[in-house]
## 1
Amino acid sequence: MEDVLRSLGFLCLGSRMKRIGEQLQADTQRVLDRLDVRIQSSQYPLLAALDRLGPLPVGELAQSLDVAQPGVTRSVALLAELGLVEVRPSDDDQRRRIVSLSRNGRRLVDQAKRDVWPSIENAVADLCADLSGPLLGQLAAIEDRLAATPLDRRAENAKVAAS
Amino acid sequence: MEDVLRSLGFLCLGSRMKRIGEQLQADTQRVLDRLDVRIQSSQYPLLAALDRLGPLPVGELAQSLDVAQPGVTRSVALLAELGLVEVRPSDDDQRRRIVSLSRNGRRLVDQAKRDVWPSIENAVADLCADLSGPLLGQLAAIEDRLAATPLDRRAENAKVAAS
DNA sequence: CAATGTTATATATCAAGTTATCGTTATGCG
DNA sequence: CGCATAACGATAACTTGATATATAACATTG
């Protein structure tokens, strides 16, 4: 069966990148699922932003992640529900709500940085190894490689290789 | 403000590709809005598939676009509502429902192929021109270029240049 | 040939992004 | 000072992907 998106080339690059991104996130989710961490892979960038940049108001968090503000509001509500982040009003501006990692959030991030993120990073690096040349070709290679060996399998292998 | 996704590199490649893809789709939408048919840019790949491959049952359409079947069912229902595609049961298998372009759908695709798709393709090609090297670098370049000149502006310029 | 299993599609629900808009709090100027 | 405007975050509605499951038609086999 012809892969139409691929045949269309530049015309559908947006759909195609979105499709690959979703696949990567889904695979990453499967890696995270095995490690009894109960949040969606899409929440990690927010936690990583707080880890890297420290406590931030909602708007700046949105900027640093380059997503729209309502998305951050929703994620923060979810993570606060889970006790991973805390929210407090700013001292000098009652409109701002400062988001920070809670004690549990701090622990989760530290654990992830130690136990999980390295193997994901290795798996993706493996996926993208030795790619060069035009973008469309690299994307096609990534699609083919993912179809052959999903990211979560690559993460396992990386862990085995490291041990 | 630091771009956290970019700093995280391979770790958040999925989120990042999704983000770029969404941006491209949104920009493309703005180009397509100039056609008086008000359908979403995300529907065009399905129309293009029918154009390239001819009438297809729902499942094969899903395969050729590499999306899950329920997504196709929904898109087809929407496009049928708009009178752009037609659905008829297969002769030899009453489970299959064959989707094809209607007269109006045919007209829309022909018009798009003539008037719109080329300028989108040129705009994206322009966006990706002279990119080479590692994937992450190319993605960063695309993000920077998009921020500097959105895709719809590039499409305009391409049209001017062609005339 | 009836029971059982398989396949194709539809439906329901969820996830995570978007835009538009609203209420509240700051700010700035006449 | 007081009011108009701007900024911040929350909420609503929508989009477009996903998965899980139900339904109906076909296939197989005992």
## 2
Amino acid sequence: MTDKHLLLIDDDIEYTQLLSEYLSVQGYTLDIANDGELGLNMATSATHYDLILLDVMLPKLDGFEVLKRLRTSHLTPVLMLTAKGDDYDKILGLEIGADDYLAKPFNHRELSARIKALVRRMAMLPTNSTQQNLKLGDVELSPSTQQVTCADHPLELTGTEFSVLQLLMINHGKLVTKNDISEKVLGRKLAAFDRSIDMHVSNLRKKLSTYSQEEKIKTLRGAGYQYLVATC
Amino acid sequence: MTDKHLLLIDDDIEYTQLLSEYLSVQGYTLDIANDGELGLNMATSATHYDLILLDVMLPKLDGFEVLKRLRTSHLTPVLMLTAKGDDYDKILGLEIGADDYLAKPFNHRELSARIKALVRRMAMLPTNSTQQNLKLGDVELSPSTQQVTCADHPLELTGTEFSVLQLLMINHGKLVTKNDISEKVLGRKLAAFDRSIDMHVSNLRKKLSTYSQEEKIKTLRGAGYQYLVATC
DNA sequence: GCCTGCCTTTACATAAGCTTTACATTTCCT
DNA sequence: AGGAAATGTAAAGCTTATGTAAAGGCAGGC
């Protein structure tokens, strides 16, 4: 039913077996790593995990260290587990980027409920990563080369224009508020009377219109902008 | 620094005062509701909350009920609090849509860490994604795309019209007073002889009637308006 | 130091849409 | 029925958001 892919990093082999069975029944696919090093490798591999269950006490690389290193490159949600009921541990874990924390021994149904809650919430995130190539209608955007083409003609975009277009394309069909654009692209809150975003959008439209007639960026007055999905 | 807006729903006034102070220092803006009904109202008002802290034991409407009703229209993250350490409660809360659960008495720093973790994760979402899509009869409303369709035909609504319709649809079957509409949509009290709401409703009706005959918005004279539930 | 490119600000025209006005119509009360 | 109050709505008025050209400013490169 759920078909979500989880990674469990825990050195207690008996325990992992048990959890594995329990979570399989719930409809999750579960991979297991019995030490921190392997766990980190798997977590950062090409395999996409929807959620990582991470024990704190681990051989080779402890849970905090795994989390810290994972967070340098990945935003995968992490639920930490620990034998200690130590508050300090909890707080530290959450501070350095864990999404939830559960002290052993825990009720399996609580674990299951917390997993479900996290997965449910994560499903709301836009699926596209910022690394992915995007193609919508006659517009193609390639993050690796910073290149955008419209009807096969390359466009000369500035870095900011590129980022704005990318954000709009990732969220195509959806409203993207000016404040979101400002925060994500310019790294600052939208101030009153700040017209920068309008200008970048205006410039984008001008460049996009060079090789294509159809309107691509729609204004939602009082709200923001929206990249129109191809109607064909 | 954070500047995040939280809503605390808890009837223990002393306790809320304390938490309020504590969280203010952390840089959060905190609104407080001392009963479930008020809390639900505030949570569904035009004010956007980044996170709701919800006690289970509440006068008028208990925490579970508040959460259930909130979730019919909003996906705002909720952290539940409870005096009981009851696992069953926790699981129930998480099942019906809470994002986290903390048993009282808790370490303030743990609360703070969990809030931070949730807010951090939620910051990755587009702003308007915390509102549910609504569908009643042949009318569909989608906050993320700011799109309303009637019998599968898209309607061109203004921002205000959209918000009025959303409010009416959220409270379908119930009376929504003009003052409520004015406060939640326009952000101001309804003044005498103010006909704005009437006009917005009038325009809405006109647009809705384009593709559908049945009356959708009923006038309750002297009181307000009501979105009629589909009779089929 | 001086380009050069790009982001931001300024300024103004324009358009969108919210509010007000005015009047017709309906409802309710006595 | 008569009248007051509330509502429906077209149209005018007004406020504000937006589009965009042009000027200003800032930083990196040569």
